[in-house]
Amino acid sequence: MIRRRTIEVFSLSFLDCLCCGFAAILLLFLLTIGTGRSASSSTEPDLDALQAELEALQSSLRENRSTLEDSQNNPFLAEQLESISRQIEQLQSRKERLEEELASAAGNQTKAETEAAKAKRLLESFPYQDLPPIGLPAEATHVVFVVDTSGSMRNQFTQQIHSAVIRQLSAILDSLPAVQRIQFFDTSGQSVMPSGTWLPDTPSLRKDALQRLRNYPLLSVSDPEPGLRRVFRDLAPSVGKNQKMSVYVVGDDFRGNTRGFLHQLDRLNPLDSASGKRPASINAIGFPTIQGPFLIGGLQGNTRFANIMREIAEAHQGVLILRPGI
User: Fold this and answer.
1) Gap between the Cα atoms of 322 and 296, Å rounded
2) What does the pLDDT profile of the chain (326 residues) look like in tens digits?
3) According to DSSP H, which parts of the chain are helical?
4) What is the CATH number of the domain that holds 173?
5) Taking the model in full, what pTM does it have?
6) What is the rounded CA–CA span in Å between residue 248 and residue 251?
7) Is residue 289 a part of any domain in this protein?
8) Is 200 helix (H, G, I), strand (E, B) or coil?
9) Same domain for 94 and 204?
């Protein structure tokens, strides 16, 4: 039979464990005290910085509040604010007016587009006719040009006849549907073409004639009377009764005798009292080559040419064309 051993609770081993536990607690307490001191010392500067920042913000707030109060009490700033408010109101009112005008313009545009479309349909309903510009003698079958080839009618660099002159003559020929014969003279009465008689109006001959005129070397006088005399002396007699001759005087200046020139043309191109017509119509094309051309009542240069040719065109059933530039 086994004999059991008696167990004592408060033995030496128990006291040993109790002392070790107490020592461990004491050690932890000492370590904790050191850590707490370092943590509290590290947070103290943060609190100081926050306190300084708070004081700076409070100071800035006081300054801004003072500035705001000063600005509210400043009469100049108050006047500026009132002026800006008025401008804003005016701009707002102007914006509203512009919006109304835009809406109205859009409505008018729609109405105008409708009217334009209606007019276009109406025009398309009429038969098309290739008509010359208003006033030009559309019935002309024989056309002759009397061109001033003096220095003022030439390009100062190339010494050629100005391109605007050539383009204008080509446009006139293109606009006359019944042309059969053509001819070109300078105002001195010299023929630009090798032949001084009527020439058939073909595309190749027209191109050649205009090119010859562009490079024409002779300088003529600024007086169309010699050229017109040759036209009525050499060309007019060969025009038939059922044909119509039209003369175009091209220039920029007139230096002849005005009254004598008018009487001479009345003899060369007399008015038929029965029909009220003349054998030929005399037209004129004026080009501006000086500053302030074609002034009514002027005595020199472009103005004198325009005045005399206006009387001639009116008396001889022609038209006067004054170009805006050359």
Assistant:
1) 13
2) 566 666 665 566 777 777 887 778 888 877 877 555 544 455 455 777 877 888 888 888 888 777 777 666 667 777 777 888 888 888 888 888 888 888 888 887 787 787 777 766 765 665 544 444 556 778 899 999 999 999 989 998 999 999 999 999 999 999 888 899 999 999 999 999 999 999 999 999 999 999 999 999 999 998 999 999 999 999 999 999 899 999 999 998 888 788 888 999 999 999 998 888 999 999 999 988 765 444 444 445 688 888 899 999 999 999 999 888 77
3) 12-73, 75-125, 163-175, 203-214, 225-230, 258-268, 301-315
4) 3.40.50.410
5) 0.58
6) 10
7) yes
8) strand
9) no
Confirm if 317 and 275 have CB atoms less than 8 A apart.
no
> Residue for token digits 């500026």?
80
Q: What is the count of structural domains for the chain? A: 2
Sign (positive/negative) of CA torsion 233, 145, 245, 312?
negative
Supply 24's token pair.
């461990």
Looking at the structure, do residues 163 and 275 belong to the same domain, yes or no?
A: yes
215 and 112 Cβ atoms separated by less than 8 Å: no
Is 122 a domain residue? no
